[in-house]
Amino acid sequence: MHFDALVVGAGFAGLYQLHALRDRLGLSVRVLEAGHDLGGTWYWNRYPGARCDSESHAYRYFFSRELYQAWESSERYPGPEEIRAYLDFVARKLELRRDIQFNSRVVAASFDERSSRWQVETQSGERFSADFLVAAVGCLSAANVPAIEGLADFQGEWYHTGQWPHEGVDFAGKRVGQIGTGSTGIQAAPVIAQSALHLTVFQRTANYSVPARNAPLTPEFRRWARENFDEIRAVARSTVNGHAFRISEQNVADVTPEEREKIYQAAWDYGGLQFRAAFHDLVTDRTANATAAEFIKARIRAVVRDAATAEALADIDHPYAAKRPPIDSDYFETFNRPNVSLVDLRKDPIERVTARGIRTRSREHALDVIVFATGFDAMTGPLFRMNIRGRGGRSLREDWKAGPETYLGLQVPGYPNLFTITGPGSPSVLTNMPVAIEQHVEWITDCIGFLRREGIATIEASADAAKRWGREVDEAARATVLWDAKHSWYFGANVEGKPRVFMPYAGGMHRYAKTCAGIAERGYEGFVMGRRRALVS
Ligand code: N01
Question: Residue 444 above 60 pLDDT?
Answer without folding.
Answer: yes
